[in-house]
Write a structure and sequence with these properties.
The chain contains seven helices and seven strands; from the N terminus they run ααβαβαββαβαββα. It is an alpha/beta fold. The chain binds S-adenosylmethionine (SAM).
Length: 205
Amino acid sequence: MNQAVDSTHPDFWSSRYDTGKMPWDFGGVPAAVKSFLSRSSGPGRVLIPGCGSGYEVQPFHDAGYDVTAIDFSPAAVARATRVLGDLAKRVMLGNFFTRDFGPHRFDLIYERTFLCSLPPSRWPEYVSRMAALLSPGGRLVGIFLYGQEREPPPYPLRDNQAEQLFQTHLRLVRSDLVTDSLPLFRGMERWQEWIKQRDDAACGG
Ligand SMILES: C[S@@+](CC[C@H](N)C(=O)[O-])C[C@H]1O[C@@H](n2cnc3c(N)ncnc32)[C@H](O)[C@@H]1O
């Protein structure tokens, strides 16, 4: 497939960052993130995959978390570097699925418009990667897109699809409608918190 039309390839995203065509870009920190951090501060290790402009790195850092963000588009990382100033060193260029993050797992992984940027054929890999990177009892938190889309990406989840997808490793413990969505996503975004089961629970033990 032409890499410029394949959302699993960094060029697809870089061409959009380079031309400023980023309809998903929130331009700041979503209210649901601020709300979460007011009730769940660090210490702990946080990963932000597919971080784009990286606006959320600063508030997680300010709340006491040790933040690592990753994006495989050089243009996204360049943009995050400009946005983040002194915290730019928290952002790495790399592929979420293959990067070696070292021996320590994460207490939190933050999601916004990363899952829905991936074709559904990659969703099982997303879930198993999340489970492998989270500590037992760790949480996948963030903003998930639900609904239908005629011309994906984005690829939204359908109701109940997420629970079927995640159930082997993660259990839903919170779900709230997002109130400050961009017009593009209005009524489709939910703040959700998924808790990682013990490793043996995932194996049915
Ligand atoms: C729709 S954008 C969302 C960016 C950011 N999360 C936000 O909310 O603004 C999807 C991002 O995921 C990145 N991405 C997609 N697949 C990736 C992968 N396998 N590894 C790292 N980054 C990836 C893209 O480069 C792009 O910046």
